[in-house]
C-alpha cells in the first residue's frame, strides 16, 4: 500500500539544541535505511520549513504507524497521512469506466 506522509515540526523538543540535532540525524538516518529496504519510494524536506514528506510502500496502515512512530522526533510532529493508489491502478480504473460507458451505449 502506498501512503504520502507529510510531517512538520510544530514545536521544538524540550531538549538542548545539540540533542535536538542528534534526534533529527537519527530520524533521517532511519528514513534513508527504510528507503534502502524499499519501504520508502521517495522523500524530501520542505524548503525553508521544518518538515518534509515521504512516500511509503508498506503492507498496511498499521505497519506504517509502527514505523513512523518509532522516530524519536515523532511526538513533536504534526503528521498528515494520505493513502495513494498507483498510476497503473488509476489508469485501469479509468479504462474500466470508459469500457462500461461504451458497453452501456450499445
From TrEMBL:
Residues 1-85 form the Muconolactone isomerase domain. It holds the Pfam family MIase. This is Muconolactone Delta-isomerase family protein. It comes from Desulfosporosinus nitroreducens.
Amino acid at each position: 500500500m502506498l501512503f504520502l506522509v507529510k510531517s512538520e515540526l510544530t514545536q521544538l523538543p524540550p531538549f538542548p539544541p545539540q540533542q535536538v540535532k542528534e534526534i533529527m540525524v537519527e530520524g533521517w538516518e532511519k528514513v534513508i535505511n527504510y528507503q534502502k529496504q524499499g519501504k520508502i519510494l521517495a522523500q524530501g524536506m520542505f524548503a525553508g520549513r521544518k518538515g518534509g514528506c515521504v512516500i511509503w510502500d508498506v503492507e498496511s496502515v498499521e505497519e506504517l504507524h509502527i514505523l513512523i512512530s518509532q522516530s524519536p522526533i515523532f511526538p513533536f510532529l504534526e503528521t498528515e497521512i494520505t493513502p495513494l493508489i498507483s498510476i497503473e491502478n488509476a489508469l485501469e480504473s479509468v479504462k474500466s469506466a470508459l469500457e462500461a460507458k461504451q458497453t452501456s451505449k450499445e
